Amino acid sequence: MTHAIPIRRDARTSHLNVALRLAARGLPVLPLRVGKGPFGNCRNCTDNACGGRPNMRTPGPCRCPWPCHAWAAATTDTTVISSPAWKTGWKYAGAVGYHPGGAGVTVVDLDDAAAVDWARGNLPATRTVVTTRGEHWIYQGTMRSVNGIREGVDLKSLMSYARWLGPGTGALAGLPDVVRALAEKEPTTARPAPRAVTVPPPAGGGKCRHRSPTYLERGVAMAEQRITDATSAVHATVYRTFLAVLSAHGRCGCLTETHIGRLFSAAQAKGESPRHCTDAWTNARTALGM
Predict the structure, then answer these.
(1) Which of 125, 167, 179, 203 has the most CB atoms within 10 Å of its CB?
(2) In this structure, what are the phi and psi dihedrals at residue 80, rounded to the nearest 5 degrees?
(3) How, if at all, do strands 173-174 and 135-140 pair?
(4) How far apart are CA 3 and CA 85, in angstroms?
(5) What percent of the chain has pLDDT over 90?
(6) Residue 172 to residue 124: CA distance in whole angstroms
């Protein structure tokens, strides 16, 4: 449906104009940061203090008018999208994002050439959109979103977001059973071994004088557990957890490479790639002005 929209993406077309045209045709949109991540909760909405919506399972604005609820901020309301409250979001946006589930579609996100080759040999042909490093294969129909179903492959539909990169090519096929089955693999009891990552340097520059080592250790352990316990929206959980850790310890220098490595390892065990971990960490530091 929505992916047949002929949207031109030239230097004269602003993210806001693209978003308005997409929304007018039924695609729930939201601004994405330069790092392709969604905007995090504003101060009024931290820990869902604004009330939000039940479990954030449906898109659209809450009591807060800002686009700060990640995928759940996606909306087709052109009045909201062009409102002064969203002005800052579009000012700093690096791309237009959308909620696939809200548009009635599922995106098979293929992150590299190897993943694309796998899809061509295992999935039915459908509409494809070329990405920076791979392709999005788009099917009509919704399902739960799952990260890391195999190396370089994520499923984005309900409670997730994707970057708008154009209408794509090819006919839009119905969501096949083979794609649905990818999300229903039996869970393994073994914890996957983390892949090698380059851990970013600690954010702070001095000794922590206002928090005890015990407080730091407990905070990192709780952050690891929060990521490990995530059953959905893993991308968002990892980002928000990184944001919380950096908010508490990022400016005083008490975070070490070992602490950051523990957080990255927990995220990778949930299917996040090293690149996703690095992007989430960078986006969290940017959000905090670090």
Answers:
(1) 179
(2) -70, -45
(3) parallel
(4) 27
(5) 34
(6) 11
Three-state secondary structure string covering the chain: CHHHCCCCCCCCCCHHHHHHHHHHCCCCEEEECCCCCECCCCHHHHHHCCCCCHHHCCCCCCCCCCCCCHHHHCECCHHHHCCHHHHHHHHCCCEEEECCHHHCEEEEEECCHHHHHHHHHHCCCCEEEECCCCEEEEEECCCECEEEEECCEEEEEEECCEECCCCCECCCEECCHHHHHHCCCCCCCCCCCCCCCCCCCCCCCCCCCCCCHHHHHHHHHHHHHHHHHCCCCHHHHHHHHHHHHHHHHCCCCCCCHHHHHHHHHHHHHCCCCHHHHHHHHHHHHHHCCC
Token digits of residue 219: 């905070």
pLDDT tens-digit map of 163-221? 999 999 999 999 999 999 988 754 433 444 444 445 555 555 555 555 566 777 778 88
Region of residue 82 (left: phi > 0; alpha: psi -120 to 50; beta: else): alpha
Cα radius of gyration rounded to whole Å, the chain: 19
- Going by their DSSP bridges, the two strands 162-163 and 153-156 should be labelled as unpaired
Q: For residues 281 and 200, is the Cβ–Cβ distance under 8 A? A: yes
Q: How do residues 129-166 score in pLDDT, each as one tens digit? A: 999 889 999 999 999 898 888 888 999 998 889 999 99
- Greater confidence (237 vs 123) lies with 123
Report the distance separating Cα 108 and Cα 123, nearest Å.
Answer: 10
